Amino acid sequence: MYSLNHQHFLQAIIGHWESIVRQSLGHDFNAQQILRKADIMRINQGHYHPIQVSQVHQLINLTVNQLHIDGLGLRIAKRLKLQDMGAWGYAMINCQNIKQLLDTGLQFSFVTKDYVDIHIGYDSEWAYITIVDRSEGRSAQHYNVEESLCHYYLGLKNFLGDLFKSQYVFVDFSYEEPSYAPLYREIFTDNLSFNANNNQLRFPVNWVHHDITLQPAIIAHIATVQSQRLDNSLDSPLSYQIRFKLLSQMKYGLPTMEMVADDLNMTSRTLRRKLEAEHTTFKQLVLDTRMQLAKEYLANSSLPIAEIAELLNYHSAPPFFRAFNKFEGCSPKQYRQSASK
């Protein structure tokens, strides 16, 4: 059983798949006939009945073998946006630097975990992201290797901004150059190799210490998406606004009630009174927002408890542990174990 954030990501992948197929075969193509073969029930484009990871891989195989569309791993990775990734995307915008981003991303590999192993290593000169293919023929056209390396490459490019220099990035694939290699060269513009020893991305190790910089509009958009996933009620508009502000600023430190009230052009006393009318308090909203995020991280990733505490702006793990235990009635470890069943 997948969480809403799992479904959000899987449905985004299928939505991008539809766009790719229609672009390749024409807008009149009936995508539903292929979706049905993978037991994926379409509501409308971008919205489907609950999807399993295995269905995504079945759909990719059908697309390659029956529709003859190549390079789906590259095509889909190019289209994925941070807001497609649910809790994973929100966790990434809360990372402080590239190293934390890479380490955090490893803990959300639920789509590829049965098909590839991802290893990150460092030496005095280089950082390495190595993809070990375990698909044993179950992945059409190296889909998972393509998608994984492309995802990391484009992620580095987006998060580093002007600091990213493609001439210092080396991209190796362990298999022969495919017939659709021009697709690779559209993305990996420098230092691309096939028939290499490993599937690997290498870049200067000093990049991992660079701070992550994102446009405020992107952070706001992702916070909006996450706010909607945590609280879709329409009858508590002020609570929703506050949750959005908490999510937008959690990376930099949680705002006080006075700061939020000032931002909303009201006194803290007025804010308190308005929240009472919505049957909540500022303190309760802060706690609830943190705990809902904690449950998503615990259910959707293998992030260590200490890292989850850090992402939620706790100074250390013990206060988070106590707060979660009191809120949920079980420890974070127990919640993770029950969510995985």
TrEMBL record:
The keyword DNA-binding applies. Keywords: DNA-binding, Transcription, Transcription regulation. It comes from the Bacteria. Coiled coil: none annotated. GO terms for cellular component: cytosol. One of its GO terms (molecular function) is transcription cis-regulatory region binding. Residues 240-338 form the HTH araC/xylS-type domain. The keyword Iron-sulfur does not apply. Pfam families: Arabinose_bd, HTH_18. This is AraC family transcriptional regulator ligand-binding domain-containing protein. It comes from Vibrio chaetopteri.
